Amino acid sequence: MRYCGGLKNNFGWDFTGCTHMEELKLVLEEKFMIRRLKTDVLSQLPAKIRQVISIEHAVDCSDKKLKALVKKLDNDSLKGMERRGTLLAYYHETGVTKIKAICDYVTSLLEQNKKFLVFAHHQVVLDAICKLLEDKQTFYIRIDGSVGSEERKSVVDQFQYEDKFRVAVLSITAANSGITLTAANLVVFAELFWNPGILTQAEDRAHRIGQQDSVLIQYLVAKQTADDYLWPLVMTKLDVPSPI
Fold first, then answer.
1. Gene3D superfamilies, from UniProt (predicted)?
2. Considering the entire predicted model, what is its pTM?
3. Which of 38, 161, 181, 227 has CA 20 to 30 A from 150's CA?
């Protein structure tokens, strides 16, 4: 009644409001919780290191599709929703054509016995990574838009506290906030995203309070794909060295 603005109407009680928020804040801080902002404890966190890894995209029928989409985008008459649709198609086709190189890179990490997070955007890329891990008989967790809050907590705990779970396969848009995965100190982005703020939030699933080691962030970038368009957007916001 006091803090949810309880009102009685024809359908019963409605507790969807919020009232006396300042008082509630004081009560919570006094009796129940301490909230520490990342900015307050940044000096206590280990370093974050970013790398760009240049990978080769597959040269096959997808390569022809990429070139056709680039040609279409170069047409100045392409405007509005049609241009946006073409860009999204180019982005999706880039993910498809990078799959083999992504899987090869993930395989090399498995051989190094590393525990790591791998982020991607498209379901087809997430599915391909998961299939690889299953073929390699590697325990992993997956969090995408289909995973509810209760299940998220369960799989996060598996990754955090069980050594056999070596890889977390994560959706950039569905798993960029609200979870802590500090059991790993390597974060790999199989795909880019046009909003750098989302990427930094995703990076911080591992680079947050509780992390004891420096965190290595790796971006897998393929030339002559949509990455050529996305990477300049990302690079202007992130402190990233040249590709290695």
1. P-loop containing nucleotide triphosphate hydrolases (3.40.50.300)
2. 0.77
3. 38
